[in-house]
Amino acid sequence: MNQQLPPLNALRAFEAAARLNSISLAADELHVTHGAVSRQVRVLEEHLGVALFSKDGRGLKLTDSGIRLRDVSGDVFNRLRSTCAELQQGQADAPFVLACPGSLLARWFIPRLDRLNRELPELRLQLSASEGELDPRRSGVDATLWFAEPPWPADMQVFELAAERIGPVLSPRYAHFAALHQAPAAALLSEPLLHTSSRPQAWPSWAGSNALDASTLKLGQGFEHLYYLLEAAAAGLGVAIAPQQLVADDLTAGRLVAPWGFVETAARLALWVPARRLDKRAQRLAEWLRCELDR
């Protein structure tokens, strides 16, 4: 006795034909030809070694074996349809968990969160912030928004959103503002610069892009995280360096100024989604983020 299951396509064609009592209607439902359904039914009959349909005038009727298989296959396919629908509904009802650095969350994302919730209510976004090393593969996280450099790993779907551009920023409240804001970039070589331990290469990278000797930079007050660094700069404590996206609102409001502009780095602001958990909501979020970054 053949203990192997018949080909799934053959079972699917038979179940539809038996349920609808019509090869033609089954073909329409499955979006295939009449002949394709007939061939699959013959494959199934050959596999089982029994006839499932018999001639009934110009039509067909189920044999006793066909009736028995119809009842079992119909129940199985109905349960499969129901379970798949429940799984899809469960995914739609679950919140979409987005991880991102706390500085990005506080300085760029939260000011736009109300608009995102209005425009993508189906997302049901839940945010997870961290200033440590993010793990986009972490269980319970649907996507990660952060600055990173390619190449991208094969097990992640990465939606590139914008190039990272970094530059020095300072507040009009800073004591040296009048002397610095119209000075050339080289003036910063003699300035004690605010910096962060989470991004030690930011100032040297900027100096190199401006043809300045990075070894002559003078680092002043340090901070553990970028968020605190930018709060210190806004308070007038010195010159900081940051991605343009994270200070865009401060520049618009005049809390910070960027006299020397921004330079592009190799990093990209990107939405990382584990390939095994990719769903349509990630694509919609990526499209929304691109539009928001282009405003």
TrEMBL record:
Source organism superkingdom: Bacteria
Keywords: Activator, Amino-acid biosynthesis, Aromatic amino acid biosynthesis, DNA-binding, Repressor, Transcription, Transcription regulation, Tryptophan biosynthesis
PROSITE patterns (alphabetical): HTH_LYSR
Single GO molecular function: sequence-specific DNA binding
Transmembrane segments: none
Signal sequence residues: none
Residue intervals of the HTH lysR-type domain: 6-63
GO biological process: DNA-templated transcription; L-tryptophan biosynthetic process; positive regulation of biosynthetic process
PANTHER family the record matches: HTH-TYPE TRANSCRIPTIONAL REGULATOR (PTHR30537), HTH-TYPE TRANSCRIPTIONAL REGULATOR TRPI (PTHR30537:SF74)
Family designation: Belongs to the LysR transcriptional regulatory family.
Protein name: HTH-type transcriptional regulator TrpI
